[in-house]
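User: We ran a pulldown and think these components assemble together. Before we commit to crystallization trials, I'd like a predicted model of the whole complex to look at. Sequences follow.
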Amino acid sequence: MRFSVLQFPGANSDQDCLHAVRVLGHEARYLWHKESEIGGTDAVLVPGGFSYGDYLRAGAIARFSPIMQALVRFANEGGLVLGICNGFQILCEAGLLPGALIRNRELHFRCEHVFLKIANPETPFTRVAPDSGVIRVPIAHGEGCYFADQETLSRLTESRRILWQYCDQEGTPSEDANPNGSVQNIAGVCNEKGNVAGLMPHPERACEPVIGSAEGASVLESMIQTLSERGQH
Amino acid sequence: MKAKITITPKKAVLDPQGKAVLNALEHLGYDGVGDVRVGKYLELDVASDSPEFRRTLDEACHRFLSNPVIEDYHVEFE
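Assistant: Here's a predicted model for the assembly, 311 residues in total across the polymer chains.
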């Protein structure tokens, strides 16, 4: 499979994304924010960081960059897109995903490993979930508190579009396990068509046991399995 | 001429910054404050306040300067 990793000024997990895809034995390349075409690509990763210094709001400026117009077209045609951390914020700002990310409840920047419950294991981003339904991955964010109005939340719940929730080791999405105050412990969601997803934690930073956890690999592996079934190589 | 834009978090949105400021005010003995909301203030140099320009700026506020999911905005010309 061929992944493209968007590169904005101020991104910092673009290299992690590229590395993770290659570790899993697939192709990855960078796509500069000034490009206006996605080109030959099976899936796109929108990486974490502080695009454009997070000025105004996280993701607010990045969403208007030329590559984002191309990304919207790619997504509308059914292409798989995963936004990680700042990438999640950018996809929400772009209207590709519902809701918004605001300042963490306790105002602290949280940098640690968390447990995520796979709330829906039947999506292109979660289907390779472990039997436990829980993965351990790192977070690193100051503005990761997911917010959506009540109507949006009901819609997300009914259509099973909440994909990941912060939980304890047993998989219970408890208040204590919520690192940032996200409503319903939401760590990540997907769009209506199910081909665009975003999450605040960093699965790409948990793809090798040597760096503390390899459980994040299941997210990328889910995408790869989906693409193989679609007949994309 | 200036367009003064105030952006504040919506009522339903948690504002941890506002809460922290309120706590600090109480600690410092400044009583009588019920709630604090921390927002943003933008001052734009503009050429006109014509109805047409007001519509343009309104669109910019809605589409870019604020995020309607979490924020309200208010524009004043001076």
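Chain A touches chain B at residues 56-57, 60, 64, 92-93, 99-100, 102-107, 145, 147-149, 181 (CB under 8 Å). That may be worth checking against your pulldown data before setting up trials.

User: Thanks, that helps.
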